[in-house]
Design brief:
Blueprint: H1 7-10, H2 12-22, E1 26-27, E2 29-34, E3 40-45, E4 48-52, E5 57-63, H3 67-75, E6 77-82, H4 88-93, H5 104-108, E7 112-113, E8 122-123, E9 128-140, E10 143-155, E11 160-161, E12 164-165, H6 167-170, E13 174-175, E14 181-182
Antiparallel strand pairs: 1-13, 2-3, 2-6, 4-5, 5-10, 6-9, 7-8, 9-10, 11-12, 13-14
């Protein structure tokens, strides 16, 4: 038996909670930006994914008009830092609604380092940083999708194995429903089946 949900009947907040508890896990873009007057900002965004490969474009969504969005619109630059398990409490703390102009780097005590191609600083303790310039934005209701072209990437050599970023070393956090966070659990390795190899490989559904 299934339960039906009507977004128009429920309203936006209850349906938002339903979406965020069922679309899981969600990777986290720990976005660093700077304001027009140079104040650094850092905030986690869990509506985040790859948007294109060539050119390399990533996207995150700002629900409402947060400092990350304002700064991106003003300067055209941002950095996506991987949110590692080791900095769990700091990632969560940077979601605090500090007043405009307060640097989360300083308020929370997150060490920063300069970027190579853009002005916003990177999180020094993050194993991955993607430096981006804004490709475009798309307003959707009360949210804005930010598309960023990756102009430089940096990865700690300690998480690399044979030229591949190893998930067990990256230890990325993810967001679930309510106040729940996910960490890396069991990892399964299964290659995609080529059509040429499909014959006789029909899969039975339980």
């Amino acid at each position: 038996m299934r339960i039906d949900f009507d977004p128009e009947t429920m309203g936006p907040v209850p349906f938002y909670k339903l979406l965020t508890s069922t679309i899981v896990p969600r990777p986290i873009a720990w976005v660093s930006t700077v304001s027009g007057d140079g104040a650094a900002n850092l905030a986690p965004h869990s509506f985040f994914t790859v948007a294109a490969v060539d050119p390399p474009i990533v996207q995150f969504t700002s629900v409402g008009r947060k400092d990350s969005l304002r700064n991106v619109e003003d300067t055209g630059e941002f950095v996506v830092n991987l949110a590692p398990e080791a900095l769990f409490e700091q990632v969560n703390a940077t979601a605090t609604n500090f007043p405009h102009g307060v640097s989360e780097f300083e308020a929370v005590g997150v060490a920063q380092e300069p970027s190579v191609r853009v002005k916003p600083p990177r999180v020094a303790g993050s194993p991955v940083a993607l430096e981006c310039v804004v490709h475009g934005t798309l307003g959707l209701g009360n949210s804005t999708v930010v598309l960023g072209r990756v102009v430089h990437a940096v990865v700690d050599d300690e998480v690399m194995v044979d030229g591949h970023a190893e998930i067990s070393r990256l230890r990325p956090l993810s967001r679930l429903g309510k106040n729940e966070w996910g960490t890396v659990g069991d990892v399964r390795d299964l290659a995609r089946i080529r059509y040429e190899d499909w014959e006789g490989r029909g899969l039975e559904q339980a």
